[in-house]
Amino acid sequence: MKQEYKNILLSIEKEERSLSNSNKSVYIEACRMVTFLRNLLRDLKVKFITCGFESSLDEITFFKEVKPKVLSKFIYYSKVVNIESFSPGNGPMLKKYLTEQIKFLKKEYVKHIGCKDFYQYFKSGRTDRDDTYFRLGHVNFLDCTDNFLFEMDLEFSTFYDYKIARILAFDLIHDYLSKCLNPDRANPIYDEKIAKSAFSWTHSKNALIELIYALHVSGCLSHGRGSLKKLGILFEELFEIELGDIHHAFHQMKFRAGEKASFLFFLKNALEQYMEKDL
Length: 279
Hints:
Blueprint: H1 3-20, H2 26-51, H3 56-85, H4 92-112, H5 117-123, H6 130-133, H7 160-180, H8 192-197, H9 205-217, H10 228-239, H11 246-253, H12 262-277
Helix pairs in contact: 1-2, 1-3, 2-3, 3-7, 4-7, 9-10, 9-11
């Protein structure tokens, strides 16, 4: 990712880290982040509408990787403001309130995010339709029924950047509500653990299982002394994914036609191509 894009995301991280050192309420800090992110989105719009993009790849990177991360944070902190505004305080009422918020969030997830073609496209790490999904002016109005489509700024959105932002924001909001239910919470609005949990596995489950087995049998983790079951649980918790019976899935891989370790072969080619770009 070009340095300019990295700096945009780093500016958000810097602003968020200051939350950990603040003695102000969660509500006030969330409001502060909403203002910061709103101004950032406004400045990005002015810059990129005025200057444009250097290439189609530059445009795709921005709308697939950069703007969704900024927008997801804006959605997240806006939701925190809303949650804290109606919070009943402490005690049993608070627990009931937070539990209801999680139920509502899951319903929204199923309605707007889960079981959709684009969601599967994004989570699988595919790139074959990036030119359609993440370039301005390529929205197919007949395929999109989301009400947001008719309100968005077509000069600064491909519609699908918003879709990714919703996916990322869901994870952040769910983490926030889950931590609020923990009575030992310190500052639930932001910490390193929540930041790291925003990462998700975007390739197939079989690919992750292949990687887990490779790390185990090669002795790269604890010299291979840990059990495969524990290693599988570790990756499930890290990426918040259910892998199911990894032993059965791996057994099926043995009967693949052609390259049996196809994901490792894919990783090797991807890394070598990246290395060649820097020569």
